[in-house]
Each structure stands twice: as structure tokens, then as C-alpha cells.
Amino acid sequence: MASVPRIATSVAQLKDALRDLGARSRRVGLVPTMGALHEGHLSLVRAASTECETVVATIFVNPTQFAPHEDLAKYPRTLDADLELLAQENTDLVFLPTNAEVYPEGFSTYVEPSQVAVPLEGTFRPNHFRGVATVVLKLFNMVQPDVAYFGQKDFQQCLVVRRMIADLNLPIEFRVCPIVREPDGLAISSRNRYLTPAERTRALAISRSLTIATELIRQGERSAAVIKAKIEQVMRDAGIDRIDYVAVADPDTLMENQAISRPVILLIAAFVGQTRLIDNCLVE
Ligand code: AMP
Q: Which atom of ligand 1 is nearest to the CA of 150?
């Protein structure tokens, strides 16, 4: 049975709702999102409800993690559908802060993220992780969860948040949930809705290239250059020619080595038409 979640749009309302839910004496799980919810987000909510008595989802399209030329203004906003989905998952509380609540007049203090924020996404989206780390810390301070749930889909983001939790002694357990994919392999993303049918077909080359590369490594290929070249070739053959990066990296540090000798993370960011997609795959 779906139950309607409480909704809070200010920190004061959030505190009242958490108190009414008796959150202090229970485990509180937090799922931060930017809305336009899909099965990937819902998998985090489900993970939270199996471990926590109180599940809080936040929906906030965070302006400080978007560069001026990025899609902040046209980022999909589907609040009614989001609330419906969260009700079906028995979310207890949805926090929908306004911009003014998160970034009051005069706001000027940011989190400086760790080294792991520097390569890959950090190169192509220079202030992105500063914005992410700042808003995540603010949401942690507002909600004060016991456990926080993030998706492996944003692998580098997980490393940045995990490091921040450790470095700033935040009393929060950190969970990473697996990437949820469409049946044909496409990693689910709020941005997939920008794709035309032809682009969506082309986008399948991203996950396909990861599957092929994983298989090559399992068969014994140990050259990172060979693996990267294969991934790029599969994408280019499908017509994806604007590739921000393909990386074969250490899953803890994101350092790239020539020889694959330990578990590696394969990471891709590429444009399909105007839409920038990311995907990754951990090869144990
Ligand atoms: P976003 O709304 O894009 O900021 O994503 C909110 C959270 O959902 C982040 O922790 C994402 O990593 C996670 N997420 C997004 N897409 C997926 C997916 N396909 N599978 C698992 N988690 C996801």
C-alpha cells in the first residue's frame, strides 16, 4: 500500500517532520536526488527502506554543480510524478528545499573536494564536484541521516563523497548501490529523456563497449591502451564521436596505469547528440 510521504520545503519544516516521525530514535536513511526520478533512484530508496526505519528523499536541482553552459535551466523537472513514485516506495519524508533555503543571500562557503575530484569529470566539469560536495554536506547537516545512499552510476561522485565523509568525520554510513540499466543495457539516467529514438539506439554503444572491454580483460588483456582503444572504437563505429574521456583506472584513486594488474574501473563520458552521458563498469 502506498502511503503519502510528508513534504518539507524549509529546514524548519524538515525538523518538525523528522521529530514527528520519531527520527532521533530510529535509523534515518537519506537518498539525495535531483528529481526526474527513475528506477535507478528508486533502487536507492528501496535499499534505504530495507536498512532504515525512516527514509528521507531529497529533490533539489543544485545550481552550484552546473557550469554556465550546462543544462540547469532545462534539467527535467517532474515533481508530481516523482512524489507519486516516492509514495509507492513508502518514502517517509520528501525534502524539497528552495534555492534560497540552500543558498541564502551572501552564501560564500564551499567544500573543497579531495584529489579524487580532479581528473575525468573534474577536467570536463571544473567546479562540478565542489558544488556536489557542498550541497551533499549541507543536506547531511540538514537531515542528519545515519546512512546515505548513492549510485555507482556516478562513480567518481561516490569517491568524492566517501572521502568527504571520512575526512570531515561525518557520522554517516555510506552505501553505494549498483547501476540500474534498461533491459538493453543503457544505464538509466534522467538525461536519457533528451535522446531521440535514433540517439537512444546509438547510446547503446556505451554500455556495449564496457561489456566488450570487460570480456577482453577477463580473457587476459592487460594493456590499458588496448582496452581504451577498443572502447573508443566500439563507440565511434556506432557514430559516437564526441568522447570526453575513456578511462581505465584504479577504483580507489582513479589513477591510470598502463598495465592492468588489479581490479579496475572503466569509465566513459560521451555526447550522444547534445546529451552528455556517463557510464562505468568495475572489473574485479
Ligand atoms: P541524480 O538525481 O542524477 O543526482 O542522482 C541521484 C542519485 O541516484 C545519485 O546517487 C546517482 O548516482 C543515483 N543514480 C542515478 N542513476 C542511477 C542508476 N541508473 N542506477 C543507480 N543509481 C543511479
A: 10
Low-confidence ranges of the chain (pLDDT < 70): 1
pLDDT for 117 equals 98
Q: Which helix (H) or strand (E) holds 176?
A: strand 173-177
Best mutation site among 44, 128, 282 for ligand 1 pocket (most ligand atoms within 8 Å of CB): 44
Specify the length of the chain in residues: 284
Question: Which among 31, 33, 46, 62 is the best mutation to test ligand 1's pocket, defined by most ligand atoms within 8 Å of the CB?
Answer: 33
Catalytic residue status for 41:
yes
What is the per-residue burial (b if ≥16 Cβ within 10 Å, else e) of 220-235? eeeebeebbebbbebb
Q: Are 149 and 175 in contact (CB under 8 A)?
A: yes
**Mutual angle of helices 224-237 and 197-218, in 10-degree steps:** 160
- Alpha-carbon gap, residue 225 to 20, rounded angstroms: 56
Each residue of 64-109: pLDDT tens digit?
A: 999 999 989 999 999 999 999 999 998 999 999 999 999 999 999 9
Of 2, 65, 69, which is closest to residue 34 (Cα–Cα)? 65
